[in-house]
Amino acid sequence: MSDLLNLLARQRQSFVADGPPSAAVRRNRIDRLLAMVLDNTDAFVDAMAADFGTRSRSASLATELVGMIPVIEHTRSHVKQWMRTGKLLRAGRLVGLRAEVQPSPLGVVGIIGPWNFPLQLVVLPAAAAFAAGNRVMIKMSEITSHTAELMQELAPRYFQGDELAVVTGGVDVAAAFAGLPFDHLFFTGSPSVGALIQRAAADNLVPVTLELGGKNPVVVAPGADIARSAKRIASARMVNGGQVCVCPDYVLVPEREIDSFVEVARATLREMFPTIVANGDYCSSINEANFDRVMGLIEDARSRGATVEAVAPEGEVLPDRGSRKIAPTIVRDVDATMRIAEEEIFGPVLMVQGYRSLDEAIDEINARPAPLVAYWFGPGDKDFRDFVRRTRSGGVARNDFAAQMIPSGAPFGGVGRSGMGAYHGKAGFDAFSHYRTVVGSDLPFSLTGSAAPPFKPGMRLYADTMLRRARNRTHRRLAKRG
Q1: Number of helices and strands (H, E) in the chain?
Q2: What CA–CA distance (Å, rounded) separates 360 from 367?
Q3: Residue 164 has pLDDT above 80, yes or no
Q4: Which of 116, 109, 119 is nearest to 34 (CA)?
C-alpha cells in the first residue's frame, strides 16, 4: 500500500508542479501510448494468447488492437478544440464583466482493467485521460498476467513514472489500488466487482466511471429477415468466445419463427466451427473458474427443464477441460427459476425465447436491469422507434453487432446496473475534466453586494418584482399548455 501511495504522491506532485499541460504535450503522450502498442504488437498478441490458452492472432488484432486506433486518433485530433475556454456573458465584457468556463484536468486518474480485453480497455481510457491533461496509473488484471507483465515492462520505455505507471498484482493489490485517493477512478468489469470498487472509492470521495456489463437483449422484429438475423446474432455471440460485455445474451423471437431461427443459428455455428478443440480461431474460456461458471449455468438450466443443445462437431467431446473450450450452446425454454435467466453468461451460450407481441418483448427487457446495449434486428420503422423510446440501455444497435460503437466520437457507457458515466470521443475528455467557471468583475459596484445586510427598500422591491414576473410568466405557459 505504501508503494502505491508513494507512486500516487509522485504523480500528483509532478502534476501540481507542471500545471495543466499544453495541447502539444497531451498529443505527445497520446502518441507515445499508441507507439507503445504499435511497436510491440507481436509481443502483445503472444501475451494474450498465453493468457487465454487459445486466442488467435487475427482475433487479437481485430478486437483488441485495430479497433482502438480510430478512437484514439479521433481523440488526438480534437484535443485542442476540446481544451478551448467557453465564453459566457459576452455582452458583459463591454462594461467590465468577464465570465468563462475552463476545462481543467483533474490530476491523477486510476484505471482498473478487465481480463477480456486486457490491453484495449486500459489504453482507451488512458488516452482519454491524457487528452484531458491528467497523469495515469493503471492496474492490470491479474487474470491476464502475461499481458500485465508485458505492459509493466514496456511502460517505462515510453513514459516517465510520473506520467504513466502500470501496476500488477493480485486481488489484494487491486483492493488497495481502488482505495487510493485518486482524482478519478475508472473501472471496467462486472457489476458485482463494480459495486466493491465504488464502495472503496467512496471512502475518499473519489468520483468513478464504471463500465460494467449486463444481459444484452436482442429483439428480432416481426417481419425481419430471420435467416440474416440468425446468422449475424449467432456470429456475434461467438466473438472472443462470448466473453464480451456487448455480446447478445438472449434473443426474443416471434413465437412462430423460433424453429426457423434456431435452425439457421445452428447451421451458422456448424459452418463457423467445423472443429473446435484444435481450432486456433475458437477462443478458450479465460480460466477454469469462468469455464466452470458457464458450465454451471448450462447444467442448472438443463436440470430445471430447459432445452439445451450443444452445437459440437461430430466426433469431438465437448466441453473439453484441457483446452477450456465449451461448444456453442443454444438454450430454450428458460424460466425465472434458472440462474441463466438472470446472470450475464459471458461465454458461448445463447438463450432463445419466444414472444407474442412487441409489448411482451419490451416488458421482458424492462423487467431486468438496464443492459449495456439493446439490439434490434429488423427495419428502422415505427416499431423500432417505439422500442428505443420504451427501453433503457447504454446504447442501441440495429441489424449488426456493436453498431453503436462504430462512430469513433460516440460516447460509450452503460446506465443503471450496466454502468455509470461514459468515454470514447469527447465523452472521455469530459469524464476526466473539471469544467471550472472563472468570473471577474471590473464594475464600479458589486453585483452581489445587495445580498448582504442591511437590506435596503430597493432590494425588497427588486425581489418582489422578479418573483411576480416569474410567477406570471410560469402561469401563462401553463395556461397555454392546457
Answers
A1: 16, 16
A2: 11
A3: yes
A4: 119
